[in-house]
Amino acid sequence: MSFGEEAAAYERGRPSYPPEAIDWLLPPGAQRVLDLGAGTGKLTVRLVERGLDVVAVDPIPEMLEVLSRSLPQTPALLGTAEEIPLPDNSVDAVVVAQAWHWFDVQRATAEIARVLRPGGRLGLVWNTRDERMGWVKDLGNIIGHEHDPLNDEVTLPATFTGLERSRVEWTSYLTPQALIDLVASRSYCITSPAAVRTQTLDKVRELLRTHPALANSNGLALPYITVGIRATLA
């Protein structure tokens, strides 16, 4: 629930998702899609742009308020992965962006199976910073290095079949202030003591001022690796 404190920073700083990664998650012919753990709507926007009938669910009112300002016509419902406020067999796909690790997996997968139509798809997606680039690795030294959540850690029950994994490399372009917002919106930064939080953000500002690739730059190129999982309800 701590994300509510930094919903605006989350929206300003967090990246979107590359089109090919989103298309890979969705089943052919999908019409009604649940964005579960939708947050401020980073993925929801991209789904709506595709002409899909989208419903967003998240447990944090402040996050949904930001989402609804961008997407006033999209249903935005308070709820959790463990108690989804939708009827049985009501969606063609459930997508989860950057949120699976917050779920009680056993309860969540049962609920997802309940709301999915037979043959429906579950799609999971994460953005991870590509730390092979010098300054991005230096950023990781300050705020903690990225960890690919799909390294054999995600398993699904037998009710989901045909599990596949994907990987897309791309670049997000952002301002120096957006990088500050990105760090400020991370859960560990939000929940840190005020002194630790201030120190972390000051170190990021120092990196922006002093790193040869960043100093005096108004725009940053932040490389990402988007990893995904998809599986079909048996």
From TrEMBL:
Residues 34-122 form the Methyltransferase type domain. GO terms for biological process: methylation. Gene3D superfamilies: Vaccinia Virus protein VP39 (3.40.50.150). The keyword ATP-binding does not apply. It holds the Pfam family Methyltransf_11. InterPro entries: Diverse_substrate_MTase (IPR051052), Methyltransf_11 (IPR013216), SAM-dependent_MTases_sf (IPR029063). Transmembrane segments: none annotated. Keywords: Methyltransferase, Transferase. GO terms for molecular function: S-adenosylmethionine-dependent methyltransferase activity. PANTHER family: METHYLTRANSF_11 DOMAIN-CONTAINING PROTEIN, METHYLTRANSFERASE TYPE 11 DOMAIN-CONTAINING PROTEIN. Belongs to the methyltransferase superfamily. This is SAM-dependent methyltransferase. The lineage of its organism: Bacteria, Bacillati, Actinomycetota, Actinomycetes, Mycobacteriales.
